Amino acid sequence: MMLAMTLLEIAPAVSVGVCLLGVFGIVLARRSPNVREAVSLITAGVNFVLVLWMYCQFQDGKEIGSTLVEIVPGLSLGFRVDALGILFGLIASSLWIVNTLYSIGYMRAHDEHKQTRFFSCFAIAIAACMGAAFSSSLFSLFAFYELLTICTYPLVIHAETETAKAGAKRYVTYLLGASTLFLLPALFLIWYAGGDNPTMAFAEGGLLASSTASHGLLGLAFVLSVIGLAKCGMMPFHSWLPAAMVAPTPVSALLHAVAVVKMGVFGVSRIVLHVFGIDLLEDIGIHQFLVWGACFTIVTASLVALVQDNLKRRLAYSTISQLSYVLLGLGMLVPAAGMAGVLHIGVHAFSKITLFFAAGAIYVALHKTKVSELDGIGRRMPITMTAFTIGALSMIGLPPAAGVVSKWFLVQGAADGAWYGVLAVLVVSALLNAAYFLPIVWRAFFKPTPPGEDDGYKEAPLLCVVALSITAAATIALFFLPDIFADLARAAVGGGS
Amino acid sequence: MRDLLQHLWTHYHYVIYIALMLIGLYAVLAKGNLVKKVIGLNLLQTAVFLFYLSIGHKTGGTVPVLWEGKPDAIPYENPLPHVLMLTAIVVGVSITAVALALIVRIKAAYGTVEEGEILALDEADGQGGS
Amino acid sequence: MTQHLPVLVIVVPLLTALIVPLVERVRRGSAWYLVTGALLFSTYAAIQMLVQVSSGPIEGSIRYALGAWSAPMGIEYVVDRVNGIVLTMVAVVGLISAVWMRPSLKMEIREQARGSYYTVFLLCCVGFMGMTITGDIFNLYVFLEIASITSYVLIAMGKRRQALYAGYSYLIVGSIGATFILLGIGHLYMRTGVLSMADIVALFEANPELFEKSDVRVAFAFFTVGLAMKMALFPLHGWQPSAYTQAPSAASLFIAATSTKVSAYVFYRISFSVFGIQFLESALPVIRDGLLVMAAAAIVLGPLLAIRQNNLKRLLAYSSVGQIGYIMLGVVLLNMDGVTGGLIHFWNHAAAKGALFCVAGALVYRTGSARIADLAGMGRTAPWTATVLTISGCSMIGVPLTAGFLSKWYLGAGALAADRWMIVPVLLASSIFTAIYVWRLLSLVWFAPKEAVPAVTKEVPWAMRGPALVLAAGCLVFGLSSISVSIARDAARALGLGS
Fold first, then answer.
1. What is the rounded distance in angstroms from the CA atom of residue A276 to the CA atom of residue C2?
2. What are phi and psi of A77, to 5 degrees?
3. What residues in chain B have per-residue pLDDT under 70?
4. What DSSP letter does each residue of A1-26 carry, written as one string?
5. Is B52 part of any domain?
6. C387, C394, C399: best mutation site toward chain A, by most A Cβ within 10 Å?
7. Share of chain C above pLDDT 70, in %
8. From CA A90, how far away is CA A98, in angstroms rounded?
9. What is the gyration radius of the CA atoms in chain C, in angstroms?
10. Which among A209, A323, A201 is positioned nearest to A266, based on CA atoms?
11. List of residues 6+ apart from A209 with CB closer than 8 A
12. Nearest to C313 by CA among C346, C358, C376
């Protein structure tokens, strides 16, 4: 009994610790790639099991987590598992396993250099995700948010070419600059708004719900924090994401489709739901900023994606656009829409990682990076392109892929809240998504292979194909069984009900 | 105006120490010769010594020693500022000594004691910025 | 013995300093043990006294009358919560740099001169510790001059001839500053007739009308300007970059981590314990506003000037110009949070800047100069030193969970509480500029092109690595634990600020 109690208290910290221990193991096993990759996989597996265990305990209604240190009044590092956190934790930890499989195939096929650095930074990044997911206070979240930026820098700069350096510089300047210039002052204002009893611990309904600070100050803090969480990709602070595409594809897949960007929207969810709270934002009226900023981003990013010829860049702009669905859902302050936004974190993760896996597989097998080179590729890489199609359907919001579920709730929420402008944006966006994804599918399956090019069957390495099949299958499975995530999302928005 | 003159006249010791101080500061800041700067520094310090001594002074005051017979009738000079200045003079002398020693070494290393020339030599060494 | 600690903390190193040259003459290289031993004792004594006052009442202090002559006749040494912090800082940094300097001196100081270097170094420590511990303003001046003269000599002992001129320039500026302080003491004495800090502040508290007197105000102005020169507060910082650059690395380490901060502490002491909060609040808004502008300018311009430097020591010197601005900001804000922020920055900056000068010293030890370009590839050849640079650099920026973050956080809170909200963007801008130059260093160290041959071929000896790691660990410990904040809060309370 005692043991179970303490285990519940430290479980989130153990989850972070397991990942960091994995780093240690990876570095130790640097001489032997097989052992090193085995360590990576085992760490990922153990971590997933741990998160799953926490999920079960959480479903039983147990309190998980504790405060580790309180540096000064209100600034504490600590963990507490709630619906939103476990949702993010489940997504990141499960996809890490798949992504590790994929990385092994990809990195080996490419014979990349500095693989030890690659795998260990990856593990630190996941540790940061776990820490952020289970953080019990805004300050903890901020610390892990910064850690994630710093430990992904070596991953972005991995190739160490001039382009990679320029991309990595832009990546780190945007992310660190925004978090220092905007997020940190926002944290400071939130702390200051607490008056004599400052706190940053997340609370149902918002930790600032009973704050007496002026609405001007709180509104400023809200705007600053949304801008400061630049990882959420809201325009005009998005250009780090296309720049980060210089990284190897597994990095783009897990980090820049899932972990890093999801950390951004996860942060915004925390800000909206557990720092300010829906009622307070309604009072201030500042949520309009979030809604229209997101609408602008959805449409503009889709338009930019239309003209990108580089496949990964097109996917990056699609990510920017899709992330704003989450922001939009949260910003409308309607329960159904908020739940749709949170759900979209999960749905988009599985769909977009599939797309990136496919893009990476094409690159590994055929060394093609441009959309215009993909004619007839569906016959050469049937599995990859089928998976890609499933991902694309999900992005557009067509059955039988998961994307339609969250979009459906989003539309419902917009109708509930009488956000008619938003409805129009959603329709336009769906059309634009179709306009930039369907041509790729059409090229791949219905156009002939260009003359003079080999058109034999040539799939990517087995591990890559396995990985992308799993995520594609998951994307379809989420359409039929969205309940795990949907329930968590509903609990996160609705205060446990 | 008359009042001001009157004031200055009765507090002439302040006028003297301020004048000395300004002369000293001028020498330290404006002169390019390192030795002259040290002389300026000495003037500055001397001005402060005089200031201290003047605040301990009483008209008709005498040595603060207990006189036999009538201990209360005799006004004493305040001895404390004198003691303090004894210390300050020692400090001043040590600073001058260190400064002069440095100047000797600078002369040996650069061959000049003119500030402008030293800076020009440093510039030529490329050491200005590093 | 415990009741004599306040005097022993000074006297032990003072007497040791005098026998050091003799011992060194008898047996080359043995003096270092004496120096380290003396500082070890001072560190022990300082920590012991800090613990003692920390466990007592907030306003409590240890008072020690020299020669049993109590004030106003004699000189008193006082240790309270505030100077306990600074005294410990000086002693610890002194000890750390003593351990660190042994290999470094072998490279940078002639063998015959090493004995006198040890003497001067020890006297310098005595001077700074004396400045913190004394309760008598004239005694303060004497210790200040001891610390200053020895600093001039330490700086002038640098290897290149530019060191001589740097030492001389510092001597001129420093002596003008010290003379101004002496004038301030004179004006104060003229009005109050006492030299003990406790007596002066008691007199002021009983007679607030004294604050209207022009000589009291002139005294404060002289103290301010004189101390601003000694602590290199912008724009009076001109002497500092050359002095730090040209001094032997061991001297740069000690002086950069302590000297300007002890002067800043003296400003705290003069402001709070001689003139009193009432004076600061009521009189001379001009000086307060002026100091605020100077501190803000230092905070922004120091790191901005640092970005362009090619010499690591000079870069660090400019960054120190900015850091002293933080400490001064604390006094100017004059509220609980602001002063807390200023006080923790004494420790935080000593740890971070000490660690960074250890790195600079390591660079000089291996390459003979402190050119920043030579840092390239150090992450591969000297990972420990590179780690120290990374941690302390993060603390300088104010990355959360490092010590520097807390200083900035509290100064920001103090600024808002004092209705000076424009200080917050100033702090942010400074963090950004600091991040730029730290990032430049770190990308050289960790992400240098593989082809480049690192100038630093291997790690420095453990005698240099260990102290650097201790200081870097300090940056993390102060950032993660609440101890330093609670000590600083109590100290701020002891200075008379409400909670």
1. 55
2. -105, 125
3. 67, 69-74, 126-130
4. -HHHHHHHHHHHHHHHHHHHHHHHHH
5. yes
6. C399
7. 99
8. 13
9. 21
10. A323
11. A203, A277, A279, A280
12. C358
In chain A, domain spans: 288-497
Average pLDDT over chain B, rounded to an integer: 84
**Can you give the pLDDT at residue C164?**
92
* A40-49, A210-219, B85-94, C429-438: the lowest-pLDDT one: A210-219
Mean pLDDT of the region C69-81: 82
CA distance A256 to A249: 9
Asked, for residue B130, whether it belongs to a domain, the answer is: no
Residue among C400, C412, C485 whose CB faces A142 most closely: C400
Contacts of C108-115 with C-beta under 8 Å, sequence gap 24+, read C108/C158, C108/C159, C108/C248, C108/C249, C108/C250, C108/C364, C109/C157, C109/C248, C111/C28, C113/C157, C114/C24, C114/C31, C115/C20, C115/C21, C115/C24, C115/C25, C115/C31
In A, residues 132-161, which contact C (CB 8 Å cutoff)?
Answer: 139, 142-143, 146, 157, 160
CA torsion A287→A289→A293→A295, rounded to 10°?
Answer: 50
User: Do chains A and C touch, with touching meaning 3 or more CB–CB pairs less than 8 Å apart?
Assistant: yes
pLDDT band at A497 (very low <50, low <70, confident <90, very high): very low
**Tens-place pLDDT, residues A427-484:** 999 999 999 889 888 888 888 887 777 777 778 788 888 888 999 999 999 888 888 8
Contacts of residue B27 in chain C, CB cutoff 8 Å? none
Q: What is the pLDDT of residues A12-55, one digit of tens each?
A: 888 888 888 888 888 888 888 888 888 888 999 999 999 998 88
The number of folded domains in chain B is: 1
Quote the tokens at residue C95. 């000890």
Residue of A nearest to C487 (CA): A72
In this prediction, residue C490 carries a pLDDT of 87
Chain A residues inside the 8 Å CB shell of C406: 71-72
Q: Are A290 and A270 in contact (CB under 8 A)?
A: no
B-chain residues near C142 (CB < 8 A) = 87, 91
Enclosing domain of residue B92:
2-125
pLDDT of the residue at A5: 61
pLDDT digits (tens, 9 = 90+) for C146-201: 999 999 999 999 888 889 999 999 999 999 999 999 999 999 998 888 888 888 88
Count of alpha carbons within 13 angstroms of residue C106, beta-carbon side: 14
Helices (H), A60-134: 83-110, 115-134
CA distance A424 to A201: 37
Helix axes C249-269, C81-108, angle to 10 degrees: 160
| Span C80-95, average pLDDT | 91
A77 by DSSP, 3-state: which?
strand
Tokens coding C76: 């008193």
Residue B115 falls within a domain, yes or no? yes
Contact C399 A146 (CB under 8 A): yes
Q: What is the pLDDT of residues C257-278, one digit of tens each?
A: 898 899 999 999 998 888 888 8
Report the C-alpha gap between A260 and A258 in whole angstroms: 6
Residue B41 included in any domain? yes
Question: For the segment A311-339, what is each residue's pLDDT rounded down to a tens digit?
Answer: 888 988 999 999 999 999 888 888 888 88
Amino acid identity for residue B107 in this structure: K
Could you tell me which chain C residue has the CA closest to the CA of A144?
C400
Please report which confidence band the pLDDT of residue A1 belongs to, taking 50, 70 and 90 as the band edges: very low
Q: What is the CATH number of the domain that holds B84?
A: 1.10.287.3510
**Contact check, Cβ <8 Å, B127/C145:** no
How many residues comprise chain B? Answer: 130
- H runs (alpha helix) in A332-459: 335-366, 377-380, 382-396, 403-416, 420-446
Neighbours of chain C (3+ CB pairs under 8 A): A, B
